[in-house]
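Listing S7. Sequence submitted for prediction.
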Amino acid sequence: MGRDDSILASALGAIGETPLVELSRIARGLPGRILAKLEFLNPGYSKKDRIALQIIQDAEANGRLAPGQPVVELTSGNTGTGLAIVCGLKGYPFVAVMSRGNSVERARMMRALGAEVVLVDQLPGGMPGQVSGGDLDLVEREAQRVVEERRAFRADQFRLQGNLRAHLLHTGPEILRQSGGTVQAFCDFAGTGGSFAGCAAALKAQDPAIRCYLVEPAGAAAFAGEPVTYPNHRIQGGGYSMRDLPLVDRRHVDGYLRVTDEEAIRTARRLAREEGLFTGFSSGANVAAALRLLESECAGKTIAVLLCDSGLKYLSTDLWE
């Protein structure tokens, strides 16, 4: 019998090439279309599998990662899950450093995939499910300590170009190809800013007229230059009140959008109920932003968004009461 080329050598081959689906029900009655990239269908159930693979591949190629060397990164859970998969299959011990404010499913999933998970207490008064920029600062300090202690490679998702490159080389071009070049706008909720940066660069390289919008939580739109009045928002995985996102080229930002907790939650629930797509907070934020664009400056246009991760990662939260 001949070899079946459709059989993948490992789960790494299943990262990327996620489907693009039109949200025809949730956008019914509005002028224009929303096309959603189903990133929760990656093996680790999020878009961060892409950057985990690219960061490790880049580090192997440039000699920054030695065989068997430990890998460490701070995470809200998704990058850590991706790194647990990639490092496990490639033979690198992985340590995830995460705030206790993130949902417990994430830590359990990373441990199941073979990662060591270091949980960091939130600031006094911090609430589970509401990870602030200050909470992230505590996680960053602990990650630096573990890197030094273990002589580890830091898979720094906020700074390493592998984050941007994963979306520049793959996600953005996939959107262009799958949509037949019909995309006229793109909006994306900012955590590290890597998926926005990479996709925006790829889209604008194809057509500079494609409008790209960066989405932040209402009351925590620091990158847009607004005062932070609500750092403890509930949209997990981003909105860390960071005024500088090193990967983002501001020349690619055509506009800034703010989404409330309530909008993100309501839209995530609508995605599940109306479209059969079970996603998390940030996916709801992206689609809420796209719906607003269809009602305003992008009326009649085709807007692409990422559905960033699975709703399975939030079963312990009030997203799915």
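Caption to Listing S7: primary sequence and predicted structure tokens for the chain studied. The first helix runs from residue 48 to 62. The chain has a mean pLDDT of 95.
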